[in-house]
Automatic annotation (TrEMBL):
It comes from Lentiprolixibacter aurantiacus. SUPFAM superfamilies: Fe-S cluster assembly (FSCA) domain-like. This is DUF59 domain-containing protein. Residues 13-85 form the MIP18 family-like domain. It comes from the Bacteria. InterPro entries: Fe-S_Maturation_MIP18, FSCA_dom_sf, MIP18-like.
Amino acid sequence: MSEAVRDTQELGEKIVRVLKTIYDPEIPVDIYELGLIYDVFVNEDNDVKILMTLTSPNCPVAESLPVEVEEKVKSLDMVNGAQVEITFDPPWTQDLMSEEAKLELGLL
């Protein structure tokens, strides 16, 4: 495995750890386990793009949550820049939640 690939994997893992520190204020589960993060892209310049959704288009944190995600990811040493893109395609459903999140919320 090349050093660049290893670095990108390591950065991806760090990004996931940061995402797991961000919580939806209405649900006591982090946004990663909730299934709000659809994809994380890292290019060779360590620019990060995160494709995420919200539990609903009317989510009360629609303005602040993407900013929090962007700022926390940008704060990582290895990250050059970060951009968050919100999508509602596909729309979020409880099926996107991890088993851990479903257990935490009593859905299992």
